[in-house]
Amino acid sequence: MKTAALLVVSFLVTGCAAIAPVAPATLAPTNTPLVVIHTVVVSVIPTWPPTSALPTRTPPPTWTPWIIVVTATPGPLGQTQTAAAASTGILTTATLPANAGGGVFTNLSRSSDHFALRCKPDTITFGVSTSNAHVTGVDFYYRTEDQLTSSVSTWQYAGPLASDKQGNFSLSFAASRVDPDLRSHRAWFDYQFVGTNSAGDAVARSARIIQQITYTIDCSD
Questions:
Q1: Which of 4, 63, 156, 207 could form a disulfide with 70 if both were Cys (CB 3.0 to 4.6 A apart)?
Q2: How far apart are CA 94 and CA 15, in angstroms?
Q3: Any idea what DSSP says for residue 221?
Q4: Which among 200, 83, 87 is positioned nearest to 134, based on CA atoms?
Q5: Distance, C-alpha 57 to centroid of its chain
Q6: Cβ neighbours, 10 Å, residue 146
Q7: What pLDDT, in 10s, does the model give residues 133-179?
Q8: pLDDT per residue as tens digits for the range 188-210
Q9: Under DSSP, is residue 16 helix (H, G, I), strand (E, B) or coil?
Q10: How is the chain split into domains, by residue range?
Q11: Which strand (E) or helix (H) includes residue 108?
């Protein structure tokens, strides 16, 4: 009887140990913060490349004038009025070479072969005509050649000639308009006519009329 009772007690002790409660698993706290990752897009503004990397502007080609040189040839004074002379009162003086107009200008004329800064005549009136429809204006250029030192100046722009809208152009050029640095007591006054179109571009040129006009400062020069 005692043996049976011990067996029952042992069974009960073993059973209680077998059904001991299991500790619950540790749960993560419910208040853990949620991590949100924001992607930020940053716009990068490129800087200008260094100056050395920039393309350089090629300068426009320089204008090379047509060179037509006319050497002075002494001749008798002209006795007839040209079309340009008739409209401006200009009398042709020293005989001009046949190619003076450069194939575009005709009736080249001037009122004198000499002018001076401090005595008369102090102004020369130039005239020229053209029938070329592309020539709507005429510009005047001049230079001086010192007869005492043989030095020659660069060509100077003296402005446009006046037009009568009939293909005739004229300009009254005073001795005082010669640049002071180019004046001489005795010099050649060379000149050239340059025809321009409606856009102001040079489209025609006369010959360079050289050593036919004398420029002086005083009457006694």
A1: 207
A2: 151
A3: -
A4: 200
A5: 12
A6: 17
A7: 999 999 999 999 999 898 999 999 999 999 999 999 999 999 999 99
A8: 999 999 999 999 999 999 999 99
A9: helix
A10: 100-216
A11: strand 105-110
Identify the residue whose tokens are 């059904």: 19
> Quick one: tokens of 72?
């002075």
Which tokens in the block code for residue 70?
């006319």
Partners of 204 in the β-ladder: 195
* pTM tops 0.70, yes or no: no
What's the CATH code, domain 100-216? 2.60.40.10
- The type of residue at 135 is V
Cα distance between residue 141 and residue 189, in whole Å: 10
Which of 185, 219, 195, 214 is closest to 110 using CA atoms? 214
Tell me the backbone φ, ψ of residue 189, rounded to 5 degrees.
Answer: -110, 105
The CA R_g of the chain, rounded to the nearest whole Å, is: 51
Strand partners for 107: none
- The single residue listed with the structure tokens 């005509």 is 129
